[in-house]
Amino acid sequence: MAEIVQSHVEDMLPEVYELQHLGVLSPEEAKSVIKTRTDFEYKMRRRISKKLDFVKFIEYELKIETLKQARIKKLGVGEVSEHTKYRSLQRIHFIFQKCLRKYKSDVPLWIKYIKYCKKVSSSRALGFAFVEALKHNPTAVEIWIMSAKNEMETNKNITSARSIFLRALKFNDSSSDLWVEYFRLEVLHVEKMLKRQELMAACDKTLETKTKAEFLEYKTAKIVFTSALKSITMGGELLRRFVGVASVATKSESLTQFLFDKTLSAHTRDASVWCCLAGHVAEKDIEKAVSLLRRSLTLIPTAECLLAVIQLLHSIESRLPQDLSKVVATFLPDSPFPAKSADTVLSLGLALEMVGLDDSFPAILSQALSQFPDSKPLWLASLSSGAGLTDYELAVSALPEDSDIWREYLTFLSNSDPEKCADKWREVMKQGFSGSLSALYLQSVFTREGLKGVRDAFKELKSWNSVPECGYQAMLSFEKEKSNPDQVFQMYSELVTSYNSLSNWREFLQFCREELPEKISDVIWKCKQLYSDSDIAEIL
Fold first, then answer.
1. SS3 for 430?
2. pTM metric for this prediction
């Protein structure tokens, strides 16, 4: 290994010495460059080499090359030898290729190398990089696209670019990015041919054949899109990407209409597709857009479609002929639409509130609860909108072991029927799921019966279930408010016995410092039985 490294170091000496002679590098910088490169050469040739070493070496060489070019320009250095001019570029290629032979599946590194090859116009190395990268990473969609674009934009070879896309789709036929870029390729190629036709017409030459006329009507682009519809799910967002590509076409209207017609024939019951079409039409004819949205709700009478319609109407509010809330109100059905999920219903509620029609939500919510009786978010939304006793009882019967639902129910009872609330509290606190309600339960008892009552309730609570930490913390707050320091000390002792944590011991010691300094030594002694010296130091 040492002989190989020494050979490489000797090979770089003429380049470094020439740069030093020209004043591009100082003697100290030249020595530093040689030493750093030697260190990296040894790291690259270790038995267990690391990718990070290769990456750092590449970054170092790129910085040296940038510095060299900047100083040559600044100093106005004339001619440099061919060896010095290209040696550092060759070295960077060598490091990249050596690294990629070891890490063949590192797609980001391949992309970095491809971009470097393009930057320095190394077409031969670029071709090698594309072939090797795709041979080892056939599912790397970004590299396929870069390769096809290179053929089209740099090599001006549409046939080769098409061939690359077709090979890429054999491995990645479900990639929406590939289909969009393939479609873009065909559209842009037609645009180039149209410009060429214009130039030939100006020279009194024509290329009018039947085949040519069909091609200039974006026939190949339409074939690509039709194939894409069979391979990928064409939602509204993806369709917008295709429409965005079609918008650069000379005959964009006819091509865009083709996209919408084909998509609607394949996805008639997709609300996002209808909204995409309506959003496109709204730019020129708002009334037609609103009509399309009404038609979509007729074909897709679901809450999901209504939500998509409201969101679109909100985005084009400035173009509507009347107030947004009035327009949206005309879309609301007499009986609520069914939904596919509870989340959709909640989103619909937010959308209605956004347009000022939140009074329409309770009826939708009621319908949704019959569909999703086990949905906690729906019940909480229902209870927060002026529910009565019957609604709360229905909620706890639907979700009898949900502490959040019980919290809402008991909070309601504490204001409407305190006596019934006390009985319900005892009933629920005997259940295993009620731990998180302990602090609220003790607070309600303390409010009604004072310190003595809450102490009895706490003892009773411990006999039913293990009391969570929040219950002890609640009792501590009551004892601190109403009783003497000895009682508080006893409660802290119970807390750290049940929940042994550094924060609880720290709080315990802080209380002793302020109220019972004579007991600090006892507390510290107990800490030492449980924690190391470093933990004790942190507590103190």
1. coil
2. 0.77
